[in-house]
Amino acid sequence: MTARRQENKGRRFWLGRRGHGVAARSVAGAARGLGIVGLLMLAGSFIAMNAGPLHAAFTERVVSDRYTGLAIGGYDPVAYFTDAQALAGEPGFEAEQGGAVWRFRNADNRRFFLARPDVYAPQFGGYDPVDLARGAIVAGRPQLWLVAGGRLYLFSREDNRDAFAASPARLAGEAASRWPALSATLADY
Questions:
Q1: What is the 3-state composition of the chain as percent helix, strand, coil, each rounded to the nearest 5?
Q2: Bridge partner residues of 97 (DSSP)
Q3: Radius of gyration over alpha carbons of the chain, in Å?
Q4: Is the CB of residue 88 less than 8 Å from the CB of residue 102?
Q5: How far is 134 from 40, CA to CA, in rounded Å?
Q6: What is the domain partition of the chain in residue ranges?
Q7: E strand residue ranges, the chain
Q8: Per-residue pLDDT tens for 73-94?
Q9: What's the rounded Cα separation, in Å, for the pair 64 and 68?
Q10: Residue 38 in 3-state DSSP?
Q11: How confident is the model at residue 72 (pLDDT cuts 50, 70, 90)?
Q12: C-alpha distance from residue 81 to each of 66, 109, 144, 147 (Å)
């Protein structure tokens, strides 16, 4: 991933002539674009009505490497559930979700994650829930983990993991109550 894509969280921007950006597009081009958007919205609503239940989009802030864009150090988030261990993902099985690049051990794990990132991604974006409950933002380590209540939690220290295992509902609740305010203080880069 190039530095420019990292700065834009992987989004690609169209630049018009001489770097004038979106303003350089013509009125006719904008109208044509709105027509396409309208068709896509109509098609999307038709699919949504016939596709069954939809799942919430994954919008959580995720611990990722600022140079590579890899989430949770390149570990496979689904492997914590299916293999009950922290396993590194393979470069051949990647997906972009939530502004980060996720790696997986195989195509099935990638498919499971993309279908339900809200289930397989670490809670609180991979930040340590015990530290969050204390009011501090500390990134969790992919090797220190626990699945509790069907959700993945990463920890910065073994002591925190042990404390969380003793009282997961209480600490997860305290972390959840502090997370919105704390996540708002994270820098966008």
A1: 50, 15, 35
A2: 100
A3: 20
A4: no
A5: 45
A6: 123-189
A7: 90-97, 100-104, 141-148, 151-155
A8: 999 999 999 999 999 999 999 9
A9: 8
A10: helix
A11: very high
A12: 26, 10, 14, 8
